[in-house]
Amino acid sequence: MAPLFAGPSPLVVLHAGDNDLAHLKRRFRFVFGAIFDTSLAARFLGARALGLDVLVREYLGVELPPSRQKDDWSLRPLTEAQECYAVADVRHLLALKDRLLQELKRLGRRAWVEEECAALAAEPPVERRPDPEAYAGLKGARDLTPRGLAILKNLYETRERLALAADRPPFKILSDATLVAIAQQAPGDVAALGGLPGCTPRVIARWGEAILDATARARALPDDAWPVLARPPRPPSVPGGVRRRIEALRRWRAEAAPSFGLDPGVLLPNRLIRPIAETAPRDRAGLARVQGLRRWRVEVLGDQILAALARA
Description:
With 312 residues, this protein is an all-alpha fold. The protein has 3 domains: 2-122, 2-Layer Sandwich (Nucleotidyltransferase, domain 5), CATH 3.30.420; 134-225, DNA polymerase, domain 1 (Orthogonal Bundle), CATH 1.10.150.80; 240-311, DNA polymerase, domain 1. The chain has 16 helices and 2 strands. The chain has a two-stranded parallel sheet. The radius of gyration is 24 Å and the shape is globular. The relative contact order is 0.08.
């Protein structure tokens, strides 16, 4: 499929495909020549609800089958309902793309979306690097006792190992909330484990032994082997001039977004505000050099952005 994806045609149409593209680029080294993301396009039409079911209903008058996202898709054979759901997920994408393009052309925003899609296609894959301290970032981790933190660390590492062995995303093994709940309760047997959220009979049958083993090993650690959380680093201070420009850009964005009928984060994403404020460009040429700004923003919004910076 690599040659099919890499050329300028055919156009690859997908919905909210940033994660799919990142995975395919990272795992298979695919290169994408031309894509159209229906979710991204809808965002530039001012859509508030971006789910495929909502867009297909709104633009095509079609009702998709009930969601099967919580099903276990590793089971075979697939049910008829699952097959209908899977097919419907792509059946209407080309027709939806045509309708969205009509609306984008009417509003003069087709070039905006084409540039954004081209940038998404060209975005290099981000390699995942193991973070030995990632467990500390889970919600609720900092509320655990030192022993509970040791259990969480072991559970997190065990989940990573099980996910690799099963070739599944870690959250499909155990959710973050379940890891924290196990760390809080420190269950010593299957009965205690079964009373915790997310520990279904199926989960226990597959991974209960590994979960209890990770918990027991952490409970057996001496006190001086318990992990200690480092204090989160203080964010670097922002110079006064940069801070004033950031505030000015945010004020301008909040005022300008309604006139375009767009979410402020679509008009000017947060990721761009600080680089613009730090660069402090004085003309369009300087603004165009800000990484990731896009040509359409310079052409359509450039003078307004420069005026907001000048006022600051």
